[in-house]
Amino acid sequence: MFLTRLGFDSKIVITGDITQVDLPSGTKSGLRQVQEILEGLDDVHFSRLTSQDVVRHKLVGRIVDAYEK
């Protein structure tokens, strides 16, 4: 696992969208597993973006909101 390769004075940034998974139903994505395992660990942070962070057309923000319902 690449997360174990972090060196001194280094940072790792992982990007992904846990809502965009095309795995079979009931199968957790690796990103979701990492989040569940590492959340709350010192020096580990997860950022969550919402429709308020959309910088595309205003309709895109409303579409994101509709999917979250």
TrEMBL record:
It comes from the Bacteria. GO terms for cellular component: cytosol. Gene3D superfamilies: P-loop containing nucleotide triphosphate hydrolases. Its main location: cytoplasm. It is found in: Cytoplasm. The keyword Cytoplasm applies. Keywords: ATP-binding, Cytoplasm, Nucleotide-binding. Pfam families: PhoH. One of its GO terms (molecular function) is ATP binding. Residues 1-68 form the PhoH-like protein domain. Belongs to the PhoH family. PANTHER family: PHOH-LIKE PROTEIN (PTHR30473:SF1), PROTEIN PHOH (PTHR30473). This is PhoH-like protein.
